[in-house]
Amino acid sequence: MTSPIPRDIPDLPAIPGMPAPRPPTVPASAVVTPVRRPVAAACRALTAAAATTGVTLSLTAGAPLHALSHFTVQSGILLALAFTASAYRSWSARPPLPAAVSGAALLYALITAAVHHLLPAPTPWSGPATLLLHTTLPIAAALDWLLLTTPGRLRLRHAAPWLLYPLTYLALSLACAAHLSPDHVPPYLDPTAHGYLPALSNALLLGLAGYALALLLIALDHTRPNPLRRRAKTGFRLQPPVG
C-alpha cells in the first residue's frame, strides 16, 4: 500500500541554476472588504427608472413593434437593464458590471443623443419620451461614468465589438428602407429619396463617427481622475514591532 500524500508539503529548497519559484499571488478580492454603495445604487436605480419610463412612453405612443424597431428605444432598453444590474451590484457590494457591457450602454446612449441633436429626424413620439431618451438618459449615463465608476476599465479591444450592433442596425435600415414608413428611416439614410450611394456614404460616416466616439471614451477613461480614490480596507492591520 502506498502512503497517503500529505496535505501540507513544505517548500522545497531552491535548486542551483534553476530560477526560484514565484510566490503565489492573492487576488485583491480575497483581502479587500466588499463595500456597499447606497448612494451609487440610488442614483443608478433612478436612471434605470427614467429609462424604463422613456421606453414605456415611446411604446404606448403608437404601435409598440414600430417603436421597438428604433435604435433609440433599443438603446434605452439596454440602458435600463444595465443600470438595474449596476444598482443591485452597488447595493449588495458585488463587483461592478463588466466594462464591455457598461461601456456599450454608455456609447449607445451617447450615439442616440448625438444623432438626435446633430441630425434631427422625425420620430413617432414626442414630449417627455423624447426628452428622456435623447437628453436626460445620455447625460445621466455620462455623469455616472464620470463620477461613480473607477477609471481605466475600458480597453481598446472593446471598440470594434461595440460597433457591431450599430452597423448591423444601419445595414438593416438601408436594406429595408423601401418597405418601412418614412418616420422610421431618417432622411439622410433614405435611399428612396436620394439614392443608395448618398445613403451608404452617410451610413459609413455615421459608423466612423461612432468608432471615433468609442475611441474617445476609452482615451478619456484612462486619463480622467479617479472619483472613488480612497484607502482600501483590508483584513490586515500593521502593528509596531515588539521588543
Outline the structure in words.
- This protein is mainly alpha-helical and 243 residues long.
- 58% of the residues lie in helices and 0% in strands.
Largest sheet: none
Report the total helices: 9
Radius of gyration: 25 Å
Mean pLDDT: 83
Sheet/helix structural class: mainly alpha
| Low-pLDDT ranges | 234-238
How would you describe the oligomerization state of the chains in this entry?
single chain
User: Shape from CA axes?
Assistant: globular
Order of helices and strands: HHHHHHHHH
Q: What fraction of the residues are assigned to beta strands by DSSP?
A: under 5%
Helical content, roughly?
Answer: 55-70%
Overall strand count: 0
Distance between the termini: 51 Å
Indicate the topology.
Blueprint: H1 28-31, H2 38-60, H3 64-68, H4 71-91, H5 99-118, H6 128-147, H7 159-175, H8 191-194, H9 196-221
Summed up, what is this model?
The chain is mainly α and 243 residues long. The protein has helices spanning 28-31, 38-60, 64-68, 71-91, 99-118, 128-147, 159-175, 191-194, 196-221.
